[in-house]
Design a protein that fits this description.
465 residues, alpha+beta, Immunoglobulin-like, Rossmann fold, 4 domains, 6-stranded mixed sheet, 5-stranded antiparallel sheet, 21 strands, elongated, disordered N terminus, transmembrane helix, DUF58 domain-containing protein, membrane, transmembrane, DUF58
């Protein structure tokens, strides 16, 4: 997957002006003028001989303030020559800090004092706004601020919002500059980007896995080479050895062109959080990284999501291979969200069997609990008729913490007993899955990517796929 680092800059559209409103300066001056009415009242009591003069001065000051405000309004209500544009990254990754830039240019006749803000979507957290800027005629300024996405999907930016002060700063005119923009927020694909230039062995090492050396145990022929100590006798190519008058071995590689289908649970249980990210987002990260490793091995990857939110799109992808496969997968899941309903394992299994007949490795990613046992075991038995099945379950680390916490009172003892019972029932379900000839991955959410790659590689090296 190639991360798009090219930024998009929006050409400035026609500015839209709002109605001028009083500035904080004008409101303060009017407040001070009203407060001096107390001094006028006191003067009429304590200095009756000067009362008329004080009242006249008070009214004169008020008249001058109102006149100045009206004149400032007439001369500053229209802001001419201000242009704006926004520059964003080509795409964003969930939870990763990015920078956005606002560019403002003043081609008008007077200097402008501005308060600048941006219409940032709710799914993005921003820091560094609002900002103050002062632009002389024919001057340009760039304002940079930070964005951190906390929800995937399409993020729609509105226009740039600006408050422009009048010449004396008594009024402010609201303006909207630039165009609306939409940018896609993907799962955290930066881990994939960092692995692109690495070989398979380097990729596994980067993920903290050790590739065990193995010679000649794969199914696909790779090349002929000289015999090495440790090669099995069945690897020897006797015809080539006779021709070249030295021992020649056949070297094989792991079988390619296999199909990996991810069944992704999007039910309400995947909304659980053990940190900043939900289990569902951790599942997507693990899915993408393990899919990338499989694609590099020459395998095809596909996706079937079930129990997704109604506003989600995508979630269904037939197995594809090649360099473009990870991009297709990313674009298929970036706006996929977990729903509020329960996962229907049997229905999802029947749907996969109806649409995919060729034998594949089916990886079911979910959050298992004991109450799922009957339905899940039924679904697994259906799938194992035609496919090799792996079930990857995310552990709820909050339950582990409760079970391991020292007991100090009766309430903590009850919580610990409940957590221990929950974990015991869950472990029994995992054992039942293993008894059905299913590979089982039980991992903390943040380590799921590593566990999935390790399990995939173990099956690959064993020749099962």
């Amino acid at each position: 997957m190639t991360q798009s680092v090219a930024a998009t800059e929006v050409s400035s559209a026609e500015p839209r002006l709002g109605r001028p409103g009083p500035s904080h300066r004008l409101i303060k001056l009017l407040g001070y003028w009203c407060l001096t009415a107390l001094a006028v009242s006191a003067a009429r009591i304590w200095l009756p001989q000067s009362a008329d003069l004080v009242v006249s001065l008070w009214w004169t000051g008020g008249g001058l303030l109102i006149g100045a405000a009206l004149l400032d309004l007439l001369t500053g209500r229209r802001v001419k020559g201000l242009e704006g544009a926004r520059k964003l990254p080509g795409n964003l990754a969930l939870g990763v800090r990015n920078s956005a830039r606002l560019k403002l240019r003043n081609s008008g006749p007077r200097a402008l004092k501005l308060w600048v803000c941006d219409s940032v979507p709710q799914q993005l957290a921003s820091t560094g706004l609002p900002r103050q800027a002062k632009l002389e005629p024919d001057q340009e300024v760039a304002i940079e601020y930070s964005l951190v996405p906390h929800r995937r999907g399409s993020a729609e930016f509105g226009r740039i919002e600006v408050l422009a002060d009048s010449p004396w700063g008594l009024w402010q005119t609201q303006m909207w500059l630039g165009d609306k923009q939409t940018v896609k927020v993907y799962p955290n694909f930066l881990g994939i980007s960092s692995l692109q230039a690495l070989s398979t062995e380097q990729t596994l090492r980067q993920l903290g896995l050790h590739q065990q050396q193995r010679r000649g145990e794969g199914m696909d022929f790779r090349q002929l080479r000289e015999y090495r100590q440790g090669d099995s006798q069945r690897q020897v190519d006797w015809r080539a050895s006779s021709r070249l008058r030295k021992l020649i071995s056949r070297e094989y590689q792991d079988e390619r062109d296999q199909e990996i289908i991810y069944m992704l649970d999007c039910g309400r249980r995947m909304r659980a959080k053990d940190g900043e990210l939900s289990h569902f987002d951790h599942a997507l990260n693990g899915l993408l990284l393990s899919a990338y490793v499989a694609i590099k091995q020459g395998d095809a990857v596909g996706l079937q999501a079930f129990a997704a939110a109604r506003d989600s799109s995508g979630g269904q992808l037939p197995p594809v291979k090649g360099e473009s496969a990870i991009n297709l997968l990313l674009n298929n899941v970036y706006d996929l969200h977990s729903g509020t309903g329960s996962a229907d394992y049997s229905g999802a299994a029947q749907q996969l069997l109806a649409t995919h007949k060729r034998r594949a490795l089916v990886i079911l990613i979910t959050n298992l609990r004991d109450e799922d046992s009957a339905e899940l075991l039924t679904a697994v038995r259906l799938l194992t008729r035609n496919h090799l099945v792996m079930v990857a379950s995310l552990r709820e680390t909050a339950v582990d913490r409760v079970a391991q916490k020292p007991i100090g009172n009766f309430s903590e003892a009850v919580d610990s007993a409940a957590a221990q019972d929950f974990l015991r029932r869950r472990a029994r379900l995992l054992q039942q899955l293993q008894a059905c000839n299913v590979s089982v991955v039980d991992s903390r959410p943040e380590l799921l990517h590593q566990a999935l790659v390790e399990a995939y590689w173990r099956l690959k090296r064993s020749g099962k796929i």
